[in-house]
Amino acid sequence: MASISPPVCDFGWKAPEFNLPDVYGSMVSLADSMGPRGLLVMFICNHCPYVKAILPRLIADVTALKALGVNTVAIMSNDPSDYPEDSPSEMKKLFEALALPFAYLLDETQQVAKAYDAVCTPDFFGFNKDFALQYRGRFDESRKETAPESTRELFKAMQQVAETGAGPREQIASIGCSIKWKDA
């Protein structure tokens, strides 16, 4: 399983629209997802060790961001044919087991991941209230294992977006497992 890093933030890039089903089949759009001060769109999946390593801290941070007016939505774009842990039924199990505080959406066609140019899990896109990209960096310096004294880079960046509408100029790219694309 090779790790891959996405490009860093293209400030001001507008969030592409989406309308995807959540784990219960209800459709969720970009507009539905936006918070009063911003939106964190993250591409994650169930099987990725990078996602698993941060999930408890990610849940805590997005809960704190919600109190600041920043909503969060997670999108799973992997082809589950080779990764059954990423199937819709497994997404629902994870959502319920962890009481995820954000919508967990299925991008079955992978068109949303392509529109966002998502490359890995996790891949974070932090938008201000005007749907302008302000953060595309890492969660923190941890990798597949939790770093003991990690700086809350994603949280601090999105807190800044909530307060000022602008993200930090210095950002370090995320790292994770490549998105599992369907055969063409």
UniProtKB/TrEMBL annotation:
Coiled-coil zones: none
Organism: Methylophilus medardicus
PROSITE patterns the record matches: THIOREDOXIN_2 (PS51352)
Name listed for the protein in its UniProt record: Thioredoxin family protein
One protein family per Pfam: AhpC-TSA
All residue ranges annotated as the Thioredoxin domain in the record: 9-160
GO MF annotation terms: antioxidant activity; oxidoreductase activity
